[in-house]
């Protein structure tokens, strides 16, 4: 949101421009008397130059012939604001009206589609990660990949994922447009949670939901740390004032404890090696890579006849680039968990009901091949593929 225009005076004149980059028709920055830049709180919705002319306040006003020492600084800050907001202008995302959540739209690309001719679960997980990062940037948190606050950076603290739960009710196809809303809130003394709701942009149908838990870790010692009051105060101002959950806290599999899978497993894929492309900007194996490793040991007959509906992962140890990973899978007996089929939604959203007898369930374990240490514990639910039209 642009700041309110100042009254026009001899020392403070405003300027009107319909150029989306805030420059005049000759491609140059406006004169320092009428610099047309102001801080932007909300992202644009993707429209670049079709908006009507806007009147914006000057960063600094000067009289003809005067050269205050702060003018150069003001111009540099204005130019930096233009550079910083270019990506924001191109993204189809923004904070919501109350500033407590963030929505962004994405087009499903051809390279994000799998054998079912729909987006893969890895694609959806990557989009969740992207919109979460964009949300953090939009409220002023760091752009270094850690979404850290000022206090966290001073203390060398970062957020790491401890749990991820994703439910997909319908997979978007190539060229579909999805809208994802995300928000975060406090979760105990050592962590926070982030939730998402994914909709088909054309119809408004809720086609997926997700929730995650994050804990604070010292970047140097790799030890978990409690969230202190300074850090909590920095991010809680951007969180809903009352708990808002993508899933109801009762009768939901998102909170279900995952039993440890013991040897011998029914299915296994051994000797998985992290690729260089699997490392993220923080130099460890990206969260989404674990999803692909879990799916590697799903039996082919399940892949042929079913599609993934739910995946829950507990991240227990970091995986380094030189680790070798074993993926183990065993089927889980159908449980008398009628609450899953009775889910009626949360926050006014509608969630499809599913007959549990159509679900196949599996437990998963990712472990280090060398020492057998547990890296990740998982659980998946698969529904029968819809009949081809």
Automatic annotation (TrEMBL):
EC number(s) stated in the UniProt entry for this protein: 3.1.2.-
Subcellular location: Plastid, Chloroplast
Segments forming domain Acyl-ACP thioesterase N-terminal hotdog: 99-235
InterPro entries hit by this protein: Acyl-ACP_TE_C, Acyl-ACP_thioesterase_NHD, FATA/B, HotDog_dom_sf
GO molecular function list: acyl carrier activity; fatty acyl-[ACP] hydrolase activity
Main location: plastid
Entry annotated with the keyword NADP: no
Gene Ontology CC annotations of this record: chloroplast
Domain Acyl-ACP thioesterase-like C-terminal: 263-384
Superkingdom classification of source: Eukaryota
Pfam name, any one: Acyl-ACP_TE_C
Keywords: Chloroplast, Fatty acid biosynthesis, Fatty acid metabolism, Hydrolase, Lipid biosynthesis, Lipid metabolism, Plastid, Transit peptide
Family, per entry: Belongs to the acyl-ACP thioesterase family.
Function: Plays an essential role in chain termination during de novo fatty acid synthesis.
The name this protein goes by in its record: Acyl-[acyl-carrier-protein] hydrolase
């Amino acid at each position: 949101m642009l700041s309110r225009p100042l009254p026009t005076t001899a020392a403070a004149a405003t300027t009107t421009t319909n150029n989306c980059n805030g420059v005049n028709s000759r491609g140059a920055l406006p004169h320092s008397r009428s610099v047309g830049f102001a801080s932007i709180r909300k992202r644009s919705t993707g429209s670049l130059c079709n908006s009507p002319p806007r009147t914006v306040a000057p960063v600094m006003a000067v009289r003809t012939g005067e050269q205050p020492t702060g003018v150069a600084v003001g111009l540099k800050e204005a130019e930096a604001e233009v550079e910083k907001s270019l990506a924001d202008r191109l993204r189809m995302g923004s904070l919501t009206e109350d500033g407590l959540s963030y929505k962004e739209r994405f087009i499903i690309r051809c390279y994000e589609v799998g054998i079912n001719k729909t987006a893969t679960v890895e694609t959806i997980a990557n989009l969740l990660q992207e919109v979460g990062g964009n949300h953090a940037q939009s409220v002023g948190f760091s752009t270094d990949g850690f979404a850290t606050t000022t206090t966290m950076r001073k203390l060398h603290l970062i957020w790491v994922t401890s749990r991820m739960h994703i439910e997909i009710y319908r997979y978007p196809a190539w060229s579909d447009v999805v809208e994802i809303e995300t928000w975060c809130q406090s979760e105990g003394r050592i962590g926070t949670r982030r939730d998402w709701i994914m909709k088909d942009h054309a119809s408004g149908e809720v086609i997926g939901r997700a929730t995650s838990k994050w804990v604070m870790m010292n970047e140097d010692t790799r030890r978990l740390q409690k969230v202190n009051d300074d850090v909590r105060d920095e991010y809680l101002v951007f969180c809903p004032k009352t708990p808002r959950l993508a899933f109801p806290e009762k009768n939901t599999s998102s909170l279900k404890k995952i039993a440890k899978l013991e040897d011998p497993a029914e299915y296994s894929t051994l000797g998985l090696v992290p690729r260089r492309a699997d490392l993220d900007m923080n130099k460890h194996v990206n969260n989404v890579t674990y999803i692909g490793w879990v799916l590697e040991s799903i039996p082919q007959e399940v892949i042929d006849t079913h599609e993934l509906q739910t995946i829950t992962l507990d991240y227990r140890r970091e995986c380094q680039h030189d680790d070798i990973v074993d993926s183990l899978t065993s089927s889980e007996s159908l449980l008398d968990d009628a609450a899953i089929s009775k889910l009626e939604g949360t926050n006014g959203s509608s969630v499809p009901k599913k007959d549990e007898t159509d679900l196949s369930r599996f437990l998963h374990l990712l472990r280090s091949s060398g020492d057998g240490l547990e890296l990740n514990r998982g659980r998946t639910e698969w529904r029968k593929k819809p009949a081809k039209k």
